[in-house]
Amino acid sequence: MQNMNMLEKPNKMWVWTRGDDHSMELPNPFELKDWLEHFLYIHNIVNVPEVTALFLFGGCQRFDLGAIKSTFQKFGILQIQRVSPDHFHIILEAFLPDIDNLGIGENPFRETDDRYQKLLIQNLNSLYLGFFGRFRGFNLNELLVCNAAEIFLQTNGNFEGMNEFLKLWMKGANPRLRLLSISQADVLIFEEILKGVTIHRVIPANEDIFHGNMLYSRRDNAERQAVNIRRFDGTTGTVITHPTVFYFLSWNS
């Protein structure tokens, strides 16, 4: 409907039950914002930013971003997928700096597009790159300029430069980083990742590894390898590998 371009009150609503092919058309009594508040109420959701996400997919350019922002004022993460570089930039211009957590399905930018660098330097709490292992174009150079506190990368390729990243972190790179998670295609070689890196402590196999309130590695996992390293200022970093997953946990004060 035309009035949906501005996310105004829909004229009608449809109700159907699971397993029933028939629906009932009724006059719509609520604005979209009222529907959102109604669903949150019936599901007893109080802390909205922790449990909700706003998804913008290809074709979302037909909606007014100002109307979206005013209708859905609180959400935990903005997820963007399958949009053009130009519209991706417009979305970020509309929502930054009011978002703390951002997810990107696929990289819309070419290697030489400076808008990609402008995205990476944002002071985000968390940045999710790739859904179902599709993200390309995030390597060591991009990691070193990324200013997010938590970075989650899923790629169907391989991340080159884990060893060099650890050495640069020990010298002071990525000071805001608390968590780095990389899921890649090939099995990781622990010895190559730590080549030339001074190990402060080898974490025993019978020790759970927590970071904050999150359990990142259970004890007695035969495929897990984990060590602690130290940055020049004394900050501890934990390196964990599972067959194709790399975790780096920084114990910043």
What does this structure look like?
It is elongated, with a radius of gyration of 22 Å. Among the domains are: 48 residues, no CATH class; 107 residues, no CATH class. With 253 residues, the chain is of the alpha/beta class. A 10-stranded mixed β-sheet has the order 3-4-5-6-7-8-14-13-12-9, with no helix packed on it. It has a two-stranded antiparallel sheet with strand order 1-2. A two-stranded antiparallel ribbon has the order 10-11. A hairpin with a 2-residue loop joins strand 10 and strand 11. The N and C termini lie far apart (52 Å). 22% of the residues lie in helices and 25% in strands.
Summarize the model shown:
This protein is α/β, with parallel strands linked by helices and 253 residues long. Helices cover 22% and strands 25% of the residues. It has helices spanning 32-42, 65-71, 85-95, 114-120, 140-145, 162-170, 190-193, and strands spanning 12-15, 24-27, 53-57, 77-81, 101-104, 126-129, 150-154, 179-183, 201-202, 209-211, 214-217, 225-230, 236-241, 245-250.
